[in-house]
Amino acid sequence: MATSIQHGQSTATKEPPVDFSRLTRILEQFKGQKGALIPILQRTQDLYGYLPRPALAFISKQTRIPLNRIYGVATFYAQFHLKQRGRNLVRICDGTACHVRGSGRNLDALQHATGVAAGETSPDYKLTLEVVYCLGSCGISPVALVNEKVYGRLNSDTLIQRVKALD
User: Fold this and answer.
1) What are phi and psi for residue 156, nearest 5 degrees?
2) CB atoms within 10 A of CB 136
3) Residues whose CB is less than 8 angstroms from the CB of residue 100 and which lie 6 or more positions away in sequence, other chains included
4) Residue 165 φ/ψ region, left for φ over 0, alpha for ψ in the -120 to 50 degree band, beta for the rest
5) pTM, to two decimals
6) Count of alpha carbons within 13 angstroms of residue 151, beta-carbon side
7) Of 55, 86, 108, 114, whose CB has the highest number of CB atoms within 10 Å?
8) Domain 88-164 part of CATH 3.20.20.140
9) How far is CA 112 from the centre of its chain?
């Protein structure tokens, strides 16, 4: 396996160059192990924050797992992300209790205030906004998860204030 290969920036995907030296070490840990694709993808995502296309192609080449199989696994499991995400992740719950108590208004207001649509990431990669359908905190709805911290009984102003305070 190569120890340090870089892939240039593609104009079609606009992905930054990927340094494969640390990915090579991950692949070496799982060398020869059957059924190691999911842990390889998990560690790859931990390394880059998502699964860059060049990294998936590199994994395919080094493990001899067909690229279409790797994409099949990466797109099947919700834990994997093929697009770069923001430094800050905001998940707004729109489950029944949250929806009834105003999560839709909170989402609309946050999208308007940040210019980031649900399911998207800001161009500067500061923020990714996602809608989820249960955070398990119905008693304090409406809720949002901001970088793994739950905020409950949110109104639009409080949510926007918390998000704008992020780095």
Assistant:
1) -60, -45
2) 9
3) 141
4) alpha
5) 0.77
6) 19
7) 55
8) no
9) 21
